[in-house]
Amino acid sequence: MLGPVLLAAARSDSIRRVVAAAPVTRPVVERFVAGERLDEAMAAVRNLAARGLEVTLDHLGEDITDPTEALRNRDAYLRLAEALKEHGLGVKAEMSVKLSAFGQALPGGHELALQNVTPVVEAAAEAGTTVTLDMEDHTTVDSTLVILAELRERFPQTGAVLQSYLFRTEDDCRALAGEGSRVRLVKGAYKEPATVAFQDKREVDRAYVRCLKILMAGRGYPMIGSHDPRMVAIAQELAHRNGRKPADYEFQMLYGIREAEQRRLVAEGNRMRVYIPYGTDWYGYFMRRLAERPANLAFFLRSLATRG
C-alpha cells in the first residue's frame, strides 16, 4: 500500500528536499498547485470564473514551527482577501484555511489559531466572501469545531469540512446540519489509526453516503467534496429526493483533477467550486494528492520516466 508511505513522506524533510530538487517536480506540481504567488492564484481564479466555475483558495503553509510563521500565514490570507475585494471576485471565490497554519499545533495553539483566523474571517466578510475551515487529522477536530462555533456567532456563513472516514463524523454531520451551516464533506486524506477511522475504502464510501444523507436532509448547505462519479450521482439523487435546487448545494473538486467533469457539471446547471492551492509550501499538499489516488501517482511516475 503506497498511500500510507506517501502520507508519511509528506512530513519527511529529507524526502521533501529530494522531491523539491528533482527537475521533473515543478512541471508536475503545476497540475495541482496554481502557483507560488498571489497574482498567479488570482489569474487562476479569473480563468475559472470566466468558465462558470467558483473557487475556494488555500494558501499553503500548515507545517509551521513558531508563532511568527502563523502571523505570516495570517497576513497572506489578509492580502488574499484584499485582492478579492479589489477585483470584485468575492462572489466567485471563498477562502479555505487550515488552522494548523495559524498556530493550532503550537503551545497554546487553540487560542492562537482563533486569534489569528478571526481577522481573516473579518476581512473575508468585507470582501463579500467567506471562509471554510479545513479539517486535518483527528486530534484537531474538537478544537476546530469549537473555533467554528465561536466564529459563526459573528459570521454564520463560516464553513467547515468533515471527513467521512472518521467514526465520529455522522454525529458531527447531525450537529452541523442546521439552518445556515455550510459543510464540505470529504472522505479524508490523512493516515488515521483504526481506533478512530475506517480503514477499508468500501466502509469509507458507505460512511460518506450516510453522512451525505444527513446533510442533504438537513437545513444547511452541503458541499460535496468528491471526484468519485458514484458520489456525484448519489448526491444528485439525494438532492432531488430532498427537494433541493441547484442553488441549495454545490460540488467541489481539486484544481487539476477531473477538469472535464467539472465543466460537465457546470454545463448541466450545477454549482461547481474548484479548490485552488497556492504558495511556496506545496510539498505536503502535493504528496497527499499522490497518496489519494493511484492515477495521480501514475501521472507523476510517467512524468519522471518521460523527463528523466
TrEMBL record:
<feature type="domain" description="Proline dehydrogenase">
    <location>
        <begin position="42"/>
        <end position="299"/>
    </location>
</feature>
<dbReference type="InterPro" id="IPR015659">
    <property type="entry name" value="Proline_oxidase"/>
</dbReference>
<dbReference type="InterPro" id="IPR002872">
    <property type="entry name" value="Proline_DH_dom"/>
</dbReference>
<protein>
    <recommendedName>
        <fullName>proline dehydrogenase</fullName>
        <ecNumber>1.5.5.2</ecNumber>
    </recommendedName>
</protein>
<keyword id="KW-0285">Flavoprotein</keyword>
<keyword id="KW-0547">Nucleotide-binding</keyword>
<dbReference type="InterPro" id="IPR008219">
    <property type="entry name" value="PRODH_bac_arc"/>
</dbReference>
<dbReference type="InterPro" id="IPR029041">
    <property type="entry name" value="FAD-linked_oxidoreductase-like"/>
</dbReference>
<keyword id="KW-0274">FAD</keyword>
<keyword id="KW-0560">Oxidoreductase</keyword>
<comment type="pathway">
    <text>Amino-acid degradation; L-proline degradation into L-glutamate; L-glutamate from L-proline: step 1/2.</text>
</comment>
<keyword id="KW-0642">Proline metabolism</keyword>
<dbReference type="Pfam" id="PF01619">
    <property type="entry name" value="Pro_dh"/>
</dbReference>
